[in-house]
Amino acid sequence: MNQSVVTSFQVSDGVGRALEISLRGVDELLPKDEWAKKLARAEATGQPLRIKLGLDPTAPDIHIGHTVVLNKMRQLQDLGHQVIFLIGDFTSLIGDPSGRNNTRPPLTPEQIQHNAETYYQQASLVLDPERTEIRYNSEWCNALGAAGMIQLASRYTVARMMERNDFHDRFKAGSPIAVHEFLYPLMQGYDSVALKSDLELGGTDQKFNLLMGRHLQQEYGQEPQCVLTMPLLVGLDGVEKMSKSKNNYIGITEDANTMFAKVLSISDTLMWDWYTLLSFKSLAEIAALKAEVAGGRNPKDAKVALAKEITARFHNVSAADSAEQDFINRSKGGVPDDIPEVALSGAPLGIGALLKQAGLAPSGSEANRLIDGGGVRVDGSVVSDKGLKLAAGTYVVQVGKRKFAKVTLA
């Protein structure tokens, strides 16, 4: 029998605060009134809500764009609710068709296992691992078997499936749609049934899949989950969503100095979106900081604070402080304290070959391009001659603002 979210609980100050935290930075929270009632019931009964986030391990590492939903999970975790970090090892075998204009190649079990090993470790830099339930959807998906899969498929129509934008657009364009792709949203929705989820989080591109969870829970006689979508984080270029393929990302395993410098490279306008989606400061604190900048305070101060917060989260406070000092040294033309040391032979060696062999340029032609652009320094002096040969000795070589090496040439 289907259960509805009917309750006479009043919205207390605590529920109002929890609702405000839930809504911070979100794209949509559906349906909001049902979520408020769930929060009220949890407060009245002391029974924490079950909050689910599923991620398919399609790559071995995650960047800070992925942490937008993890931050929301942490905020809800800190309110006392049970968060479930679901690794989609079974659904990865199908491949998520969301936002695709062609069939996604499925991963092999070996690739999935390799990627899954690092996913939770990295997510634990945001979530509290002691209070996080980790699950793999192969637990219940493998147990379904052929008969269970057919029964599950009977719970949804082809017409409804074709309402999904990516399927509709591909069908209209005459692009192939494999039958197994229809199984992906069904399996993601079935995860919510298996976990008895109260709320599922995802990016805006996951809305169809999240709503499938609501539908299937009702089909199986459960109270339907609410769904919360978070906007996709705009990357360092200030235009496109953060993506490794667009090289506008910050990896959460990058070294502290690089992470700090990359945050400082974003625009003053984009900074406030990042504060809302990535910072753990309260909205009141962010509003006060924004007012100070509007009143004349240097926006760089606010950006430095954000860079230190993000760097400390994925490293520690000491590393964030050191990264700030490193950035100051570089901006003044100074040399960082800790730079790689490289030993090379072949003196006298041409500057292009030296840059390539020292790992400061990927190729000789790129080395020449860097020299033409005035981006190469040896012992603080700009190199303008691509034919320069360096004799035996030790040199501090700099490329751009952030690449340094202490090269000993013999």
UniProtKB/TrEMBL annotation:
A motif ('KMSKS' region) lies at residues 241-245. Its main location: cytoplasm. A motif ('HIGH' region) lies at residues 57-66. Keywords: Aminoacyl-tRNA synthetase, ATP-binding, Cytoplasm, Ligase, Nucleotide-binding, Protein biosynthesis, RNA-binding. Its EC number is 6.1.1.1. ATP binds at K244. Homodimer. Belongs to the class-I aminoacyl-tRNA synthetase family. TyrS type 2 subfamily. This is Tyrosine--tRNA ligase. It comes from Simplicispira metamorpha. The gene is tyrS.
